[in-house]
């Protein structure tokens, strides 16, 4: 089995477990994330943080994003432009959000495009070393590469439920590891080897 096939199998297994969670468990878990990271996430006012509008059975981090805004974060959401590219559009209070394609919701084309310094990243699976499996399209990997090419050093915080943790992710050279993971049971930082 190739690494790509292994990842696909793990992705399907862990997303099925997430899908099997009750709506109440997902809501309670999402709210617990605010308690675990809302005041613990280290940033200065004005820092650009990318969140996401939940799709399918993802954690709903809108309460966390609202709390980060009260601490001075400048928020944005990823918008899928095509099969290869996502951009991050500013989310300002009162501005409408629209369906932006590929099942996502975000600010419309009139919103400013920002370069986030912290990315709250949805994922399919993660391990104790900070490796992650996304949804298979590579959008975040390419977006992170673009941010780094512009001189950025974005911090990556995975957002998942505990049931999405696996013993080991079959990491590939192009994979970008997480700096931290936030689940309903806590906020964990990873030690990254340079």
From TrEMBL:
It is an enzyme of class 6 (ligase). SUPFAM superfamilies: NagB/RpiA/CoA transferase-like. Its EC number is 6.3.3.2. One of its GO terms (biological process) is tetrahydrofolate interconversion. Pfam families: 5-FTHF_cyc-lig. GO terms for molecular function: 5-formyltetrahydrofolate cyclo-ligase activity; ATP binding; metal ion binding. It catalyses: (6S)-5-formyl-5,6,7,8-tetrahydrofolate + ATP = (6R)-5,10-methenyltetrahydrofolate + ADP + phosphate. Its cofactor is Mg(2+). Substrate binds at residue 58. Keywords: ATP-binding, Ligase, Magnesium, Metal-binding, Nucleotide-binding. ATP binds at residues 7-11, 132-140. Belongs to the 5-formyltetrahydrofolate cyclo-ligase family. This is 5-formyltetrahydrofolate cyclo-ligase. It comes from Shinella fusca. The lineage of its organism: Bacteria, Pseudomonadati, Pseudomonadota, Alphaproteobacteria, Hyphomicrobiales.
